[in-house]
Amino acid sequence: MDTWSAAITLFLIMDPLGNLPVFMSVLKTIEPKRRKLVLARELLFSLVIMFAFLFSGQAVLDFLNVRQEAVSIAGGIILFIIGLKMIFPQPGGVTGLAPGEEPFIVPLAIPMVAGPSVLAALILLANQDHSRMLDWSLALAGAWFASATILMLSSTFHRILGERGLTAIERLMGMILIMISIQMFLDGVGKYYSLN
Fold it and tell me: pLDDT for 118-138, tens place per residue?
């Protein structure tokens, strides 16, 4: 795999367009002038976490004696809960935070941007050819930059779609998120049982 194809793969796994409704839903209770700052902070956290996994993810999992299947199953459960909250909204929104309270790392940085699929892909890239870490770093930086640009324009999408449009998309994406989470869970369970 070359750098360009690795970047495109990581970008598709990050799925910024699919994550837009979640980000807008989480950030809508925060005052508008703070939204960009909170979003930028969460995106930077996600970048740091992804680089940490690229360079030392497998070592950390080995040290903690945690298998990649466990990461997939845990991510699936978290996404399932977020998907349910998107379909059946509650006063605290998808995060359960009080109005105006800012999300911190979860769920925006993890698992929405730096999700289990992305982290697993980064571990696989690093294991595939450890001598090309500069290529994988460039691929990750490019994919993150493209995703961050789309997510930073979320307010533009808010103006275009309006509140009703966003609510409809949020519920639809909640359904899709539940399907993705169940697939992640089943993949993790299936891989676990195939290795035992």
Answer: 887 888 788 777 889 999 999
Q: Which of 159, 29, 25 is nearest to 87 (CA)?
A: 25
Tokens of 132: 């090309």
Nearest to 109 by CA among 66, 65, 147, 139: 147
Omega into 111 within 30° of 0, i.e. cis? yes
pTM of the model: 0.70
Top pLDDT among 92 and 87 is at 87
Closest among 11, 28, 22, 72 to 173, alpha carbons compared: 22
CB 150 within 8 A of CB 23: no
Q: How much is the average pLDDT of 51-80? A: 81
The distance from CA 85 to its chain's CA centroid, rounded to whole angstroms, is 16
**Distance in angstroms (rounded) separating the CA atoms of residues 138 and 14:** 16
